[in-house]
Amino acid sequence: MSADFEPVIGRYLRFAFQGQTYRLYVEEAGQGIPLLCLHTAGSDSRQYRALMNDEAITQRFRVIAFDLPWHGKSSPPAGWHETEYRLTRDFYIDIIVAVADALELDRPVVMGCSIGGRVVLGLAADHAARFRAIIGLQSSATPSAYYDISWLDRPGVDHSEAAVGAVSGLMAPMSPDAERWETLWHYMQGGPGVFHGDLHFYTVDGDLLDRLARIDTSRCPLYLLTGEYDYSCKPEYTLEVGKAVPGAKITIMRGLGHFPMSENPPLFRNFILPVLDEIARPG
């Protein structure tokens, strides 16, 4: 019996950024237009596993996903134990641009979900010339504190169980059990304080409302796709972004929640393929 390997390649990128040296884990599959994918808070690049195994996508797109420092297989920098991890707006925006440069990506499409869906609005506002198109999944422009996060950062809290409890209700109830639980497993494997540190961006330092006026969709198309089952980023939050950004193309995804690409890949495929078709269309 021959080995049944997936067409996904994983490598480590040695990466100097803002005075620190990082070892970032990067996965990719396919060829063509670069599609740089950003994972959610407290998770990692495995959330995009289905896209990397979809030939309808990988025949035209080079799907790339990397783990932020502290996440997945990307280690924190040396001396991490002497600091408190907190993801800030400027660091997040800048590291995405720096990774795209380090990978020598020529005007990639960037797609992010949750915190990634928020940060892509900053990319659209200030780095539009660097990207071919921007796709936001579960995108909102202002901090969304749907529960008190202060109790997460305590020694007596089981971080893996707490993270699962915080996000499990954000998925659509009809999403398949296997995919739902795999999505939750990724959260269970997060390092102590990482989910809490990411939520600093999502609930405190991630306000991008003031930058929406700078987004010009004639320079860089903006697609916003939001699942209907999500009390963290409600559909109306995304619709508010659309009102502030002329030309933004918005889809409310029926039957999906906060993690559309991982909680129900077959259903998400129905929504993302037309977007990718439009981006790949010549002219």
Question: What topology does this entry show?
Answer:
Elements: E1 9-17, E2 20-29, E3 33-38, H1 49-52, H2 55-58, E4 61-66, H3 89-102, E5 109-113, H4 115-126, E6 133-137, H5 159-167, H6 177-188, H7 194-205, E7 222-229, H8 235-244, E8 249-257, H9 260-263, H10 265-280
Feature tags:
single chain; 283 residues; alpha/beta; Rossmann fold; 8-stranded mixed β-sheet; 10 helices; 8 strands; globular
Global structural class:
alpha/beta
Helix fraction, binned, reads 25-40%
- SSE pattern, N- to C-terminal: EEEHHEHEHEHHHEHEHH
Query: Which fold name corresponds to the CATH topology?
Result: Rossmann fold
What do the pLDDT scores average to? 94
Q: Largest beta sheet: what is the strand line-up?
A: 1-2-4-3-5-6-7-8
CATH class: Alpha Beta
Which ranges are low-confidence, i.e. pLDDT below 50, for 5 or more consecutive residues?
none
Biggest sheet details? 8 strands, mixed
Radius of gyration: 18 Å
- Total beta strands: 8
Query: CATH architecture, please?
Result: 3-Layer(aba) Sandwich
CATH superfamily: Alpha/Beta hydrolase fold, catalytic domain
Shape field: globular
Strand portion: 15-25%
Distance between the termini: 46 Å
Q: How many structural domains are formed by the residues?
A: 1
| Helical run tally | 10
Can you walk me through this structure?
The protein is α/β, with parallel strands linked by helices and 283 residues long. It has a single domain (9-277), classed as Alpha/Beta hydrolase fold, catalytic domain (Rossmann fold, 3-Layer(aba) Sandwich). It has 10 helices and 8 strands. The chain has helices spanning 49-52, 55-58, 89-102, 115-126, 159-167, 177-188, 194-205, 235-244, 260-263, 265-280; strands at 9-17, 20-29, 33-38, 61-66, 109-113, 133-137, 222-229, 249-257. Strands 1-2-4-3-5-6-7-8 form an 8-stranded mixed sheet, sandwiched between helices. α3 crosses α4. The longest helix has 16 residues, at 265-280. The protein is globular and about 55 Å long.
